[in-house]
Design a protein that fits this description.
The chain has 16 helices and no strands. It has 427 residues and is mainly α. Helix 8 crosses helix 9 (225-239). The longest helix is centred in the middle third of the chain and has 32 residues, at 138-169.
C-alpha cells in the first residue's frame, strides 16, 4: 500500500469512528424517544403499536428497493444523502412538539420516512464499509468503532432522558424538552453526514450485477437459512405482541416519570454493552447455534415477569436481565445468519429476512393492540403472558434443529449451565 493510500485509509477509518458515534447520539437523543413523543401528542396504546411497527415495515420495503437506486448513484452518495434526509426530518418533529391539533398522523409519517432512510441505506453502507476496511484491520477497527458507538448511545440516551424529565418538571413543559432533544439528534446526524463525506470508496467502475431474487428464495427453501429465518421472524413476532406496549404501561399504568423510564432504558442498554464480550467468549466455547438456543430460552420469560411486581428496584433488575439476554440473542442472530448464508446469496437472503421480519412485527403489533383494546384492565398482564407463551412455543418447535452444528459442540444443557454460571461450569 502506497503512503498516499495509507494516509487516505487512516483518515477514512478515523472519520468512520466519528460518524458512527455521532449516529449513535442521534439514536439516543431522537429515535429512542419516538414512542414517548407519541404518548405526549396523545396517541393511544394501539397507535403506539403502529408507531413502533409500521416504520419498520416501511424501511424493510425500502431496503429491497434501495439497491436499484444505488446501482446508478453509487453506494457512497446514496448513503450520504440518506443520512442528510434523516437529519432534516428532526426539524418537523421538533415543530410537532410545539404545534397543536392532531399531530399523530404527521408523527407516524415522519417516523416512517426516518426508517426508510435508516434501513434504505443500511445495505449500501455495509457494502461500502466492507470494501473500505481491509480484512487485516477489521477486528481492531470495528472493536474501536463499536466502543465509541456504545459510549455515545448510552450517554445520549441518559442525557436525553434527564433533559426531558427536567423540562417536564419546569414551567416550559415537556414540549421544550422534545424540541431540545430532537434538535440535538438532528445536529448529531449532520455531524455524522459530514464525516461520512470524508470517507473514500475504493471501488472503481460500476457495481457488479446483483443475483436474482429467485436465488435467495431457493436458498431459503433448500438450505439451513430457511429454518433459521423462520425462527428469528416468529420470535420477533412473539416479542412484538407486547414490546410496543411496555412504554404506555410504564408511563400511564405505573405512572413512572421520564427520568425513571430513562433509568430503566439505561439499565438494559448498559447491560447489553457490558455483556457483549462475554457472549462472544461463550459463542467461541459453545458454538453459535448453542448460544442462539440459550439466549432464546432466556428471552422466553422476560415479558411475563413484568406481571410479578411493579417495584422500581425489581424493574431495574428485570431490565438488566433483558439486556443480558438480548445481547446474546442479537450476537447469535448475526453469527448464525453468516453461518447459513453464502457470499453470493447473502445480501438477497438478508433483504428477504428484513422484509419478513417487518411484516411479522406489524402483524404481531396489530394483534397485540387489538387484544389490549378489547381486554380492558387485564389487557397488559394478558398480553405480557401471551408473549412469553408464544416465545416458548416457537423455541420448542424450531430451536432444536436451527443453525449449523459444530463438531464437538456441548449439549444444550451444558451450554445453558456455562452461560448461567458465567463460564465457570466444567468443559
Amino acid at each position: 500500500m502506497s503512503a498516499e493510500r495509507g494516509t487516505r485509509l487512516r483518515r477514512s477509518l478515523r472519520a468512520s469512528i466519528i460518524d458512527g458515534a455521532a449516529c449513535a447520539a442521534m439514536v439516543g437523543f431522537g429515535e429512542l424517544y419516538f414512542p414517548a413523543f407519541g404518548l405526549f401528542v396523545g396517541a393511544s396504546p394501539f397507535q403506539i403499536g403502529l408507531l413502533t411497527s409500521v416504520p419498520i415495515l416501511a424501511g424493510a420495503v425500502a431496503q429491497m428497493l434501495a439497491p436499484r437506486i444505488a446501482q446508478r448513484t453509487g453506494d457512497r452518495p446514496f448513503v450520504i444523502v440518506g443520512a442528510l434526509g434523516q437529519a432534516l426530518l428532526f426539524a418537523p418533529l421538533a415543530g410537532l412538539a410545539l404545534a397543536g391539533g392532531d399531530r399523530y398522523p404527521a408523527l407516524l409519517a415522519a417516523a416512517a420516512l426516518y426508517s426508510v432512510c435508516a434501513l434504505g441505506i443500511n445495505t449500501m453502507w455495509n457494502a461500502w464499509i466492507g470494501r473500505m476496511v481491509p480484512v487485516a484491520v477489521r477486528s481492531r477497527f470495528f472493536g474501536r468503532r463499536g466502543a465509541a458507538i456504545s459510549a455515545l448511545l448510552l450517554s445520549s440516551t441518559l442525557c436525553g432522558g434527564l433533559l426531558l424529565d427536567a423540562a417536564a418538571r419546569s414551567a416550559w413543559g415537556a414540549a421544550s424538552g422534545f424540541v431540545a432533544i430532537f434538535a440535538l439528534a438532528g445536529a448529531s446526524r449532520l455531524v455524522s453526514a459530514r464525516y461520512l463525506a470524508q470517507q473514500h470508496d475504493p471501488r472503481h467502475g460500476p457495481p457488479p450485477p446483483r443475483p436474482p431474487l429467485g436465488s435467495a428464495v431457493r436458498a431459503l427453501r433448500r438450505g439451513p437459512s430457511g429454518r433459521l429465518i423462520a425462527l428469528l421472524v416468529l420470535v420477533m413476532g412473539a416479542v412484538h405482541l407486547s414490546a410496543p406496549y411496555f412504554l404506555p404501561y410504564m408511563l400511564r399504568e405505573l405512572g413512572l416519570s421520564y427520568g425513571q423510564w430513562t433509568i430503566l432504558n439505561v439499565a438494559s442498554l448498559g447491560t447489553r454493552i457490558v455483556s457483549s464480550p462475554y457472549w462472544g467468549a461463550m459463542a467461541r466455547r459453545c458454538g453459535n447455534r448453542r448460544i442462539l438456543q440459550v439466549s432464546g430460552t432466556l428471552l422466553v420469560p422476560l415479558a411475563g415477569l413484568w406481571v410479578v411486581s411493579d417495584r422500581f428496584a425489581y424493574l431495574i433488575g428485570l431490565q438488566m436481565l433483558a439486556g443480558f439476554a438480548w445481547s446474546g440473542f442479537e450476537l447469535a442472530m448475526v453469527l448464525n445468519l453468516l453461518d447459513v448464508t453464502g457470499d453470493r446469496d447473502r445480501a438477497r437472503v438478508l433483504s428477504l429476512y428484513t422484509l419478513l421480519n417487518g411484516l411479522a412485527i406489524v402483524v404481531a403489533s396489530l394483534c397485540g393492540g387489538v387484544l389490549l383494546r378489547h381486554l380492558g384492565t387485564v389487557g397488559y398482564p394478558t398480553l405480557f403472558l401471551l408473549s412469553s407463551a408464544s416465545r416458548a412455543t416457537i423455541m420448542l418447535a424450531l430451536g432444536r434443529g436451527v443453525g449449523v452444528r459444530r463438531a464437538g459442540e456441548p449439549s444444550y444443557a451444558t451450554s445453558l449451565l456455562r452461560v448461567l454460571s458465567f463460564g465457570l461450569a466444567p468443559r
